[in-house]
Amino acid sequence: MAIRAFRGRLAAVAATTAAAAVGLAAPAQATPQPLPYVALGDSYSAASGVLPLDPSASLLCARSTANYPHVIAQRTGAALKDVTCGGAQTKDFAGAQYPGVAPQLDALGADTRLVTLTIGGNDNNTFISTILACATAGVLSAGQGAPCRSQYGSKFGDDIDTKTYPAVKAALQAVRNKAPHARVAVLGYPWIMPAKAQTGCFVKMPIASGDVPYVRDIQTHLNDAVRRAAAETGSTYVDLAAASEGHDACQKTGTRWVEPALFGTNFVPVHPNALGESAMADHTMAALGLG
């Protein structure tokens, strides 16, 4: 009996020792840390005009908690620092856009691992000038002809090439300098106008029929400038041209990603709605390979 008891104790000690050895050989895995994510950019990043508003942002920025950065953070579990602000230009990366609103680059650091942005549309008032000028010309011509193209010709495109493109490139390089370990994704702007005039759209977007392709070409020009700037700074360009086709401001509610100038649902017209922001999040995640 004594021998059997001794052998039993010996077996128990051996089993305990083996279990301890296994525990030492295979330590518990560390809990993954959330991806440090900073969102920069203008009203298309901020989703200006979409409710609810972000209570942490200046009211002047009209930032929404339904913008594509928030959607990405919710889907990935990333730790989001959102400094997007409606009306932002490339100059607002290094300087304060409004009193109490810090330069957007201040949000970046060596620990940042993901940056997303849309920028360039407000430089030189490209979007504002194009829409206002062409809408005014369209009303005066009762929607006929191409009065905006006749009046402005290559002006908008020339400004994009000579001013916007180098400014966007410099802004992206500044982002990469401030966040050297981050993946940087800059989005193109989803289509505002269809490829050609559509019946009934003049009521919502008062652009003369002949100016519809002209306005579209200006946006193509801007997106191409952003694409080139991205390529030359090692950033990822999120191309929304094919994805947003058929989702322009002329389409019906529930289909369009961008709200029209008149009779839309956003309190800021000619900007993406919640559906558009969600779609922008989808395509950004796909371009970056985020689950």
Strand and helix map with partners:
Blueprint: H1 2-25, E1 36-39, H2 43-46, H3 68-76, E2 79-82, E3 114-117, H4 126-140, H5 147-152, H6 155-178, E4 183-187, H7 201-204, H8 212-232, E5 236-238, H9 274-288
Parallel strand pairs: 1-2, 1-3, 3-4, 4-5
Helix pairs in contact: 3-9, 6-8
Your description of this structure?
With 291 residues, the protein is of the alpha/beta class. The chain has a single domain, classed as 3-Layer(aba) Sandwich (Rossmann fold), CATH 3.40.50.1110. Helix content is 42%, strand content 7%. The protein contains nine helices and five strands; from the N terminus they run αβααββαααβααβα. The protein has helices at 2-25, 43-46, 68-76, 126-140, 147-152, 155-178, 201-204, 212-232, 274-288, and strands at 36-39, 79-82, 114-117, 183-187, 236-238. The protein has a five-stranded parallel beta sheet, with helices on both faces. It is globular and about 65 Å long. Residues 1-26 have low confidence and may be disordered.
